[in-house]
Amino acid sequence: MWEPTLVPGLLQSEDYAREIIRATRPELASAEIDRRVDARMARKINLLGSHAPTLHALLDEGILHKPIGSPGLTARQLDYILQVAAWPNVTIQVLPLAAGAHGGMEGGFSVLSFDDEDPDVGYVEGPAGDVYVEATDQVRRLMLTFERILSTCLSPEKSAELMTAARSEHGLP
Questions:
Q1: What are the distances in angstroms from CA 103 to CA 83, 95, 144?
Q2: Residue 29 and residue 7: Cα distance in Å, rounded?
Q3: Which of 61, 93, 131, 160 has the fewest CB atoms within 10 Å, i.e. is most exposed?
């Protein structure tokens, strides 16, 4: 997955998810926000266990610097990402701001890969709703975009160092 604006749902802590949902859907009642947060947290369970899928997430560096919620919340979110990045089935890399213009500037997306028998599917989430991309040429375009972004990203180790350094901007040493 590629995300240029916020931490992807699968990598969000509960508090961060609550703030994002509250900010993007201010019309929702507290109970509905809680339900959506619970659903988002439940989806992460699939990343655990012996049959967990692999997750390769590319994040724009701007995400690391954007303050979300109360003081310290973004720092705690970065701590959470660093914990998840240590899982054997998860790779997280950061596209540095210095990369300038790049192929992922049009927005975030995911590509879901399945067994050899099932074709890959693209997924794009936005304010107008969720879109699943099934056409082979469009999925291939998403994969090529992912590979171009990946070629400019920091290594997982350098990405972790950058996330660790960004924590201090948000109130934690």
A1: 28, 11, 9
A2: 23
A3: 131
Which single residue is written with the structure tokens 């160092």?
A: 161
Give kind and range of the element (H or E) at residue 75: helix 73-85
DSSP string, 100-119: -S-TTTT--BEEE---TTS-
Q: Which amino acid is at 173?
A: P
Digit-coded pLDDT (tens) for 1-39: 999 999 999 999 999 999 999 999 999 999 999 999 999
pLDDT score of 172: 67
**Angle, helix 73-85 to helix 156-166, in steps of 10 degrees:** 160
- pLDDT tens digits, one per residue of 64-121: 999 999 879 999 999 999 999 999 999 999 999 999 999 899 999 999 998 778 899 9
134 Cβ contact list (under 8 Å, min separation 6): 119, 121, 122
- How many C-beta neighbours within 10 Å does residue 129 have? 7
How far apart CA 91 and CA 78 sit, in angstroms, is: 14
Query: Residue 21 burial (CB < 10 Å; 0-12/13-18/19+)?
Result: buried
Provide the whole-model pTM: 0.93
